[in-house]
Amino acid sequence: MHFNLEEFLTLTFTLFAVIDIIGSIPMLISIKEKTGRLKEWRITLISGGLMVFFFLSESHS
């Protein structure tokens, strides 16, 4: 498997634009108010895993 930095950066910026964390802030605040706490490390790991999954699935097509 060949790692292509250009494809990785393109995917990273595309996912950042699609996910749009700034637009998600009201939803995150609402979840935090209801649950009392967010597990930031878990959210980061899941997001990173999804990014790597989509990167690998895209590079095989």
Short structural description:
Helices cover 82% and strands 0% of the residues. The chain has 61 residues and is mostly helical.
Description:
- 82% of the residues lie in helices and 0% in strands.
- The chain has 61 residues and is mostly helical.
- The chain has one domain.
- Helix 1 (5-19) crosses helix 3 (40-59).
- The longest helix is centred in the C-terminal third of the chain and has 20 residues, at 40-59.
- The protein is elongated.
- The two termini are 13 Å apart.
Mean pLDDT comes to: 77
* Whole-number count of domains: 1
Helices, by number, come to: 3
H-E string: HHH
What is the overall shape?
elongated
Instruction: Indicate the proportion of strand residues.
Output: under 5%
Using the CA coordinates, give the radius of gyration.
14 Å
Alpha-beta classification: mainly alpha
Distance between the termini: 13 Å
Portion in helices: over 70%
Sheet having the most strands = none
* Total beta-strand segments: 0
**Quaternary form:** single chain
Q: Stretches where pLDDT falls below 50 for ≥5 residues? A: none
